[in-house]
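3.2 Worked example (two chains)
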Amino acid sequence: MAGNTVDVLVPVALDQAYSYRVPRGLKVAPGDFVRVPLGPRECTGVVWSEGRARPGLDNRLKDVAEALDLPALKPELRRFVDWVAAYTLSPRGMVLRMALRMGEHLGPERARLGVRLAGPPPQRMTAARARVLGLLADGMVRPKAEAAREAGVSMGVVDGLVDEGTLETVVLPPEPAAEPPDPAHAPPALTPAQSAAAAALCETVRRGGYSVTLLDGVTGSGKTDVYFEAVAETVRAGRQALILMPEIALTTRFLDRFAARFGVRPAEWHSQVSPRRRARTWNAVAQGEAAVVAGARSALFLPYADLGLIVVDEEHDAAYKQEDGVRYHARDMAVVRAHIAQIPIVLSSATPSVETEVNARRGRYRRLSLPERFGGQEMPAVEAIDLRREGPPRGRFIAPRLAEAVKDAVARGDQALLFLNRRGYAPLTLCRKCGYRLPCPHCDAWLVDHRFRRELLCHHCGFSTPRPAACPKCAAADSFVACGPGVERLEEEAAALFPGARILIMSSDLVASVERMQEEFAMIAAGEVDIVVGTQLVAKGHHFPKLNLVGVVDADMGLGHGDPRAAERTFQLLHQVAGRAGREAGRGLAYLQTHQPEHPVMRALIAGDREAFYASEIEIRERFGYPPFGRLASLVVSGTDKHAAEAHARRLAAAAPAAPEVRILGPAEAPLSVLRGRHRYRLLAKSPRAFDLSGYMRAWLAAAPKLSAGLRREVDIDPQSFL
C-alpha cells in the first residue's frame, strides 16, 4: 500500500477514522498498528481500511509516522469494535481503546536477573552465604529474588557473592503471562449428568461454528468442571478459550481449581493485575501464546490470535454491565463476538437471566441441565421468618428463630452465614432531637455510617466526613443515632448474641487487599470461623464445607426500588446465597427474614420452585413489553444548574422523532436526582423487540438541541440501572 492513503482509527473519543498518506517505502495493511500525528502530538492507531483517492487533497494529508511491530488486529475484532460502537452509540475510538492495552506507555521492561555458581567460594564464609551456595550447588540458574527468598537471606547477601565473583548474573527471558495448560493433566471424575453435558460441549467445540449453549445447573452441581472439559477440548485443538467472570468471582479458589485441572493457572485479566503484567498478557494473547484467559468483562476486547470458545460464568450477574464510558453488557457482546467469529459460546448459571431463559425456552439457545448437586448432596431447605409476626426485639435485627438456629449450628460445629447486602454500620444517621438526617453534599443520598473507618460515607460519589459532634441544624450535642442495620452493626449484634463465637465480616469496603480477602476465604473454608457476616461478596462462587446455615436478614431489600428487574435480581441473589448452605456434609437450611412471605419471589424460593418464578416473571415482562419482549434505551440529562438541565430534557423530549413503535417516557427527575453535584433528568424510550432502537436513538440525538455549557447527555442502550 506504499504511496497510497489509509484510514486510521485512533483510541480517542472520535467516531471517525482519519486519512493519512503512506510514505514511500512503508508498507501497511488494514489491522496494522501505526504511529500517526494527531494535532500537536503523535498517537498509536490502527489502520482500519484503505483510503479512497481524492485528487487534490491527498497531498495535504499528514504522513503515517511509522508502522509498529505488533500483531495486526484481525478483521473479526475490527468488525466487533464497529458493531459495539454502532449498537451502544459510543465513539469507535473509545471502543478501540478497550482493545489497545499493550502497555506502550510503560517503556521497556526491566530485565529479569538470575544467578548461578561461577567462581571459587568467598574469602569470608557466613551461615547466610553458605545457605545461598548450598541452594545453588546444583548449578541451576534461579531468579535472584527467588534465590534470596528460598535461602532465607536478604538480597544484599546475594549481591555480595556476585561482587566477589562466586556467583554470576544471567539475564532471564521475560516472565510468561501464563504457562501452557495441559488438557490431559487431571481429568475429573464426573457424574453421569456432568459427563453427558461435558460430552455435548466437547462435540460442539469439535464441530465448530456459532452456537449458544446454556449450562443450567443448580448451585453445587459442578458446572465449572463441565465447562473446563470444553476448554480442554479447545486447547487440544490448538485454539484459545476465554472464560468471562464477574470480577468478584475471580478468586484464588477458581484459579486453583483451574490449576488442579490443567496443571497451571490461566492468564488473568482484571483490574487487580498490574499494568506491566497486563501488557505481557495482551502480547501473549495477540501472539497466541496464552491459550486460556480468565477475565472480567474487558477481557472480551483482547486481540485473540485464534479464539475458539467463550464461556460466560454467572451469566446473569449485573456486574457484566459497564455503567460508564462505553456502556455495554459483556454477556450480550460476548454472544455478538462469538457470532462474528463463528465460534461456540457457553452461558453458565444456576439462575439464568430472564433474557437467557426465554431464548432457551424458544429454542434460540440449547440448554444442558445439571439438576442435582455433585456428590448427591440435597438442595438446602428454605423457610420464611415473617417479621410481622415473629420479628426481633426493638433495636435488634436477628429474629429469635434465626438466633436459635445460629446458636445450634455453632454448638454442632457447623458454620452460619448472616447475609445482609448493605455495607457499613447503618444506612441512615439522624438527630434524635430535631430529626435532621445527614445528607451527602453532592448527591441526593444519605451518608452511611462506617464505624470501623470512623467516618460517614456516600456510596455514590465517595464523599466522606467524620461524624459531627453536634447536629448542624439544632446544635444538640451527641444527638445522632444510627437507623437500620449494615453488616458492621449486624456483627455487633451477633457478638452480643453469640459470645465466644469466632465472627468474621466479609464486605468489599473492609477488604484491605485481594491477598487479605483470599486469606479470609481460606479461613472460612478451613473452619476457622464460626459465623460469617457478609454482603454479596460471599454470595456466589465459594465452597465452604462446614457452612450449613444461611440467614438472610433483610430478604425484601431489593424489591422496593422501582426497577423492572428487581424481582429477578432478588430471586437470583437469594437463591445464590441460600445455595452456600449444605454443599458438602449435612442438610443445608436457609432462613429468609421478610415482611412479604406471600411475594412471588419468596414463595418460589421457599417451595424450591424455580419454574414458577420464571413463568410468573416472563408472563409479566411479555404483557408489558419489557425485555426480552421489548427494548429500552435511556437518556439522562445532567447539569450543575437544575433548571437548565430540566429545560434541556424537555426540549430533548420534544425533538424525539415521531415513530408509532416508540414510546417516550419522561422527562422526570431520576430516582437519584443529584449525583456528584449534577442534577439528573431521565428519559426512557420503549420499543418492540424487532425495532432498531439504536438507529432511532442515533436519529434522535442528531435532531437534539445543542448542549449548553455545563450540560451533559448520557445514552444507555439496554439499561440495567434505573437510578
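3.2.1 Second chain
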Amino acid sequence: MKHIIFGREDYLHGELHLSTARKLDALNLLVEEGRVYLHRQGDFPYEGGILTPWREEGHTTYGYERRGERYIMETRGPEEVARIFLQEIYSEGVEGEVLAFGLDPSYLYLEAMRILLDEYHCPWQEARERVGRQIIILEEGPEISVRDPRLLELKGELEERGEGPEFHPGDFPQKFQWAVGEVAKSYRALISQRRREIYHKDLNFPNPQGLFIGSDAREAADLWDQIHRLFDELVARPQLDLPDLIFCLERHTDPVINLDLRTRHKLKLIPREVLVDLFVTRDPFLQKFYRAMGVEVVEELNILSYARGLRRQRPLPSGGEVLFKVMAKDLEGGKLYLYEDAFTMDREVVEMFQNGEEFYCTIPTEKLPVYYNFGFFRGEEAYEVVDPYAKALSVNGRRGYRFENEDQFYQGGFVPAVENPVICELHVKDATATLDLPPEEAGTFLALSREGLTLGGRAVGFDHLKELGVDYLHLMPIHNYITVWEQAASKFDGDNYNWGYDPDHYFALENSYGTHPEDPLSALRGLHQLVATAHRHGIGIIQDVVYNHLYLGERSDLALLNPQALRRWDDGSLSDGSGTGCEVASEEPLTQKLIFDSIHHSQQLGVDGFRFDLAALTDRHTLEEIGRRTGEQNPHCLLYGEPWMAAESVLARELRLQGGDGGLYLFDDDFRNGLRGSSFDYSPGWILGDNGAQPHLEESLLGGGKHPLNLPYVSCHDDEVLADFLDHFGGSEGEKIRRMKLALAVQMLTPGPVLFHQGDEFFRRRHRNNPYNGPQEATNIHWEERVEKEQLVQYVRDLIRLRKKMDLKHRILHSEAGFMVLENTGGRYRIFLSNTPQGRDIGPWLYPQTRWAFTHEGLVDEKCYMGQIISGRAVYVITFEGEKIPPKGV
C-alpha cells in the first residue's frame, strides 16, 4: 500500500487540478495499490475521513463527512494538511510508503516524528528510521514556518543531537521521472489527436492552425482578464492584425466570446485540453511536463506582445501578371498578404505601391489560386483587411480568394422579357433544406437547381416552381453575410440561420450556399448551375441586394478603408435610416462605384434583375445610373425595391427616391394592406370584408397603384406570411383558404409584375413574425405539406396560366362594396370578384354563348347558363363564343 499526499489546493472546481491528474497518471504506472489524499483550502473543521479505492474512479478522494454528505477535505493551510494526512495514515497501522507532493519536507518530517513519538510511543531511533524509510519526497513544497510548541521542541532536539531530516527514497524518484516521461509521450499523442479534431461545430470552429495557448487553473485568472480585454478590442476593431488565438484554459469558457461574430473568429476559448503551442504556468511539475512534450512554457504572458511577434513572414517582391489594387483613405503602408490556405498563420508579404488613395502591386500567375488580405497602418496600429472587391472568400469571410478564369462562371445571356411577370420570392436554404438530397446538397444553390425531384408523385423543388409557371425566382440575399457559421457541420443547427439582410460583402457569395463551404468556389459553381437551369426553362433569377447598410457599420472593412462610405450627422454620429445602426453613403464616389461594379459582376454571373432592400436609402442618382447601366447590359433587366426607410436619414431631400427612378418598380404596401389587412395593427383588408381599400384595388387592377411603376404583393419575407396573418382573425381552415384564394386571384389578375412568397401557394405557415434569424424549423419549406395541398397548388398554377392567357388590360363594368365586375379588353373574358359571404347573380353580365373559364376550383371549360349564381368570397371568370350580344338591359 502506498499513500499519495498532496500539499496544495489540488481539487479545484470539483475536479482534479491538471498537475495532480498527470502525477497520478504517472503513479498509475508504478503503484499497484494506493490511496490518494487530496484537499482544498477552506474553513470547515475536519470531522472524519472517507477513503475510496484509488483504482475505482482513477483516483482516491480523501475528505470528510458532514451532515451525511461527502466533501473533499478542506483545510486552513499546509500545516493542517500534513497533520491530518499523517494522522490518518499512521492510524491505519499500514507500513506502506508515503509519496509526498507540494509539502515542506522538513515540516513533514517533524510532524511524522511527533505522531510516532507522542501517539504511538516509538523509540527515537525507530521513529527516525521509519519516517526516513516511509516518506518519499517527489516534489518539494514551500517552506512552512514552525510555530507549534511541540514541533519547535522536536526541531531543537534534532539540532542538539546534530541530526536533521533524513529520507531514503531508494530508486523510486528515478522510476517516477521515467513514468512522467511515458505519460508525457502518451498525453501528447492524446491531445494531439484532440487538436486534430478540434475543428468542430460545438467549439465554433477554432482555427486548427491558430496559436493555441494553455494554462493551468491557477494561472487562468490573469489570462481571463487579458482575454476579455482583447475581446473588447477586437469587437471595436476586428481588423486588428493578430493571428487567431485559441485559449485552452481548465474549465474556462465564455459562450459570448465564442459565438460573437464581430471578432472575425480571431479569439476562441476551449474548455478542454488540446496540444498547445504555449503553456502558462508557475507549477514546477507542469513546466517540466509540458517541456517534455515539446511545448514552450512561460510563467507569465502578455498576449498581444507574444502573438504579434510569433507570426512568420516572408517578403515577396512585387512583379507579375496578376494585379491587386485597393482604395484606402487615411491609411498607410499598404501590403498584400498571401496565405497558403484559409487558416495558416504564416504569410508572404508584398509591399504595395501608392498612387494617391490607390495601393497596388502584382504577383505571378503561378501563385494562383491564393488566399489574401491587405495590410495597413493607421498610426501605430496594424490592420488586416479583407478585399471589398474579392470575388470569393474563405469560409466565414475571413480572407479573400483570388483564382484564375473568373469568366468560367459567367453566363452567356438573360431570359427574354415577360410583359406581366410572376416573381416567386424564396430563401435558398428554406426552399431546399428538407428535399431528399445528400446532406451536402440540401440548403444550397445546387439543390435549388435539381430537376426531377418528386415526393408522393408530385413535383418538388425546382420542378414545382417550374410547373407553377413562375417567371422569376427572387433569391433572398446571397452575397456574403456574417451571421451564420458557414461550415457544413453547422448547416442544420437550428439557430444557425439568417435571411441574409446583414451584409458584409457585395461581390463574394455566401459560402454556406455551396455544397462544400470550405471551398471558396463551391457557391459560385452552385449559382452557375442554378442560373443555367433556370435560364434553360425561361426562368429568370432576381438577386436581393442590400446596399443600404453594413452589418458591422463603422467596424467593417469597407468603412475602415473609406470612412466616408457611411453617412453621418453633423455631430459625427452615424445616420441610421436602416434601423440597423448605420447606412451606406451611396452618393460617395468610391462607394457608388463599388455598387455599380457589384451589380455588373452579378449580371456577368447571369442575374436577370435586382430587388433593392430599403431602396429609399440609395440616392436617386445612383438608382438612375443603375437603371441605365443594367439596361445596357440586359435590356430586359427587372428592377424593383422597397420605397421606404426604416428611420430618418441624413440623406438630402433632393437625393431621395422618387417614383420611376431608374425604371425601378416599387412595392405597394397599400395594395397588401388593403387586400389582406395591415400587419402592424391587424386591421382587416378586402378579403376579410373591409371594403375601404376597394378603390385602390380597382385602380391597381386597371394598371395604376401607389407608384408610377407599381409592384403588388400579398406577403413577402417581412412580417407574417398570408396564412399566419389570417390565423389572427379566426374561422375555419376552409374559410381561411377561400380568402387566400381570393387574395391571390386579385393579385394575379393585376397587370405588371407581381410577387408572392414561396409557400403561399399551399398556405404555408411559419408561426412567427419576421423569423429572420430562425429557428430553421420555422422557416423550412416542408414539401410534404405541398403534396398534401395539391389542390391549392393546382389552383395557383391555374391562376398563373389564366394570367398569361390575358393581356390584363381591364375595364370596370360594375363596382359596389365587396363586388367587382371587370372585362378584359384584350380577350374574351369577364371577371367577377366578390368578398361577400352570400352568392351573387351574374346573369346581367352573361352572353348567350358563355362558358366558365375559371372558378374557385381553378381553370374549367364548361357551358355557363343564364341566371347563374356565383358563391361568395371567390373569383369567377367567364369567356364567350361567337358574337358578343349582350343581354337586355346591360
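3.3 Remarks
The CA atoms of residues 484 and 496 lie 5 Å apart.
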